[in-house]
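Quick one, tokens below:
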């Protein structure tokens, strides 16, 4: 650094100036964005996520969870990724004249200032084509993606009675 500064002072100073400006800019943007992300992250809490135990592979299993939305606006659950299933879809349950029937939906509504319980007989996530057996007590990390709240890395517990 010293050698450069003495042999070509103008070029080195210009370079340092640009880098300092760039670093300052990145830090400023980072500080500007951070409070927004933190607020959105805290407003939406996913807890008690669980999936039933199974000794079969290649089956579909319901994933349920509790979602607390303290944000000022409603949100929607867009998608879920779990390491032990190939796909995930969102389901609602229709109760007509016959037996209740599950129906695929685009997203699950998450109203503001409310706690939403995903349940097998209501809105839930359906994990498709499981890749492995799931033993009672095991835990996995799944990504739950919300439109406003972003991606929540969520611990999912395998339980015999979900
Ligand atoms: Cu379902």
């Amino acid at each position: 650094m010293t050698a450069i500064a003495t042999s070509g002072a103008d070029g080195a100073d210009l370079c340092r100036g640009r880098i300092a400006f760039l670093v300052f800019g990145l830090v400023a943007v980072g500080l500007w964005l951070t409070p927004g992300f933190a607020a959105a992250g805290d407003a939406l809490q996913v807890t008690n996520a669980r999936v039933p135990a199974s000794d079969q592979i290649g089956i579909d299993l319901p994933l349920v969870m509790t979602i607390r939305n303290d944000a000022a606006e409603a949100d929607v659950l867009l998608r879920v990724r779990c390491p032990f299933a190939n796909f995930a879809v969102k389901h609602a349950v229709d109760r007509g004249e016959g037996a209740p029937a599950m129906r695929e939906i685009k997203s699950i509504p998450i109203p503001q200032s409310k706690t939403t319980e995903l349940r097998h007989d209501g809105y839930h996530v359906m994990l498709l084509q499981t890749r492995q057996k799931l033993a009672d007590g095991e835990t996995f990390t799944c990504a739950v993606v919300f439109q406003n709240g972003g991606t929540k890395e969520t611990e999912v517990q395998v339980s015999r009675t979900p």
